Amino acid sequence: MLNSQTQPDEFTFPFILKSCSSLTNKPIALESHSRLVRLGFQWDVYSSTALIDVYAKLGCIDDARKVFDKMSERNAVCWNAMTAGYAYNGLDLEAIAIFREMLEMDFEPGVSTMAAVLPACARLHALDHGRCVHGLVVRRKLSYDSTVYNCLIDMYAKCGKLGMARQLFDEIMEKTDVSWTCMISGYVHCGMMDEASILFREMQELGFKHSYATMACMLDACAELADLRLGSCIHGHAAKHGFDIDVITGTALIDMYAKCGFIEEARRVFDEMPDRNVITHNAMIFGYGIHGHGTEALETFKNMREDGVKPNSSTFVSVLSACSHAGLVNEGKQYFESMVTLHGMTYEAKHYACKVDMLGRAGFVREAFELIKGMPIEPDDVVWGALLGACRMHGHVKLGRMAAERVLELKPEEAGYYVLVANMYAAEGKWGESLRLREMMRERNMKKEAGCSSIEDGGLVHSFVVGDFRHPEWGEIHEKMGEMSEKLRCEGYVPDTSFVLHEVEEGVKGERLSLHSERIALAYGLIKKGKGVLIRITKNLRVCGDCHNVFKLVSKIYGRDIIVRDSNRFHRFERGLCSCKDYW
Ligand code: ZN
Ligand code: ZN
User: CB within 5 A of ion ligand 2: which residues?
Assistant: First the structure.
């Protein structure tokens, strides 16, 4: 057109600019801009809006703003373009600010603008602004628009308003796979795993195709729930429907298999992935760590560096905790040093917490305390918590008391710490102190998360809490538990009652321990799983020391292999020993 000496007019520029929004076309965009100014079309609102749009898409948001500020008259379309431009560039605060300005000037936001502002509200947890957009959607009767609705669901879910999100989800007439993904990931995000997996199955039954996003998010949920059946079903679905195992899906699969106890399977996925980034490696190293495979974890770390993948601060958390779980103290110390000397990183509190944990578990409690004293940053509750755990494990009463005070000072709302501290006092026989803490918890209306153990059988997950007799097969379970106790007694087992919190008579304490949820699940496993079949149990809290002993003995007496995943790591009990070598 230019070669044939035809002059472009104000109708030409919006079109030509629209076609420039990929980076390779930036020179054409700039040339069009200068030509547009020379021809005097910068006053044309459509051409200017097209400029704002293209600059925003090219990442030149300041240039977009300059065009916007120079405009003598603005219509709703250019306000929309500027708002969407900020959101597109991740400038969430600016996006919301200009959106508000636009509303104050009485301009109508478009559907796409609302769809751009809502994710900004979600990321900022700006519920009030999000609600204001919702109000607009209602007033303008946009209920047919699933894009806006999906954004609303996502916004409410990310702000923690799951009930509202679900109400909107149910209202959508024509749900798309994005609607399902938003709702499912909302549940996962808030830790409502059961709701997430129910919805995921429903989605499958209704014939919706899963996207990469739903799969990755569901795999995270499976990892948390230790739901291997659903997890491997998703893996199968991906393979059957020709999904490539990309970095995100692959990493989610590794994490899922590792957390479900199938470290070899995790490794297979790892080896088969064409691309692996730092997060993939972190997941693999972390997986080896919780299984107590310290050497493999460090091997993976070495390979990662040979492949030219740069470790980040989470990598070192995985590496250090792997050393901690495997009792590799010297290696751990070297890696800790290398963070600064070799990788030029700065220590964060979480790295100190890992090292304190590592030293503490191995019995170097004093050294751990010295490390804390020398920290250039303020130690947080996790650091003191690690020391407290070590003091409890190795009976350092005075130091433990100090760590306990710090922890409760820093995190007075965390029920878990009260339990840990109360536990420590109870173990020393200081019932008064222990009771005082229980009192404090009651006053502050805090509840300890109830211990719950589950075991899968016949496609169902059976969950038990302490002293749980609600199971339909309780009679049989109870009988098995009696038999277990008898056999344990013959083997010379004496309950370690320091793990019972309340001051009760010794005999009663032993009885309490024998009703711990993991033992009920174990009895159920012994009944249901044939000889030679691995018994897998998941517990939401740490397995207690006495149950740990019992599991070791049962693995020997009954000749069974048992895997327990507690909140901290994996224990594989075989022939009277545990893979954690009693480090946990
Ligand atoms: Zn126990
Ligand atoms: Zn163990």
Answer: 571, 578, 580
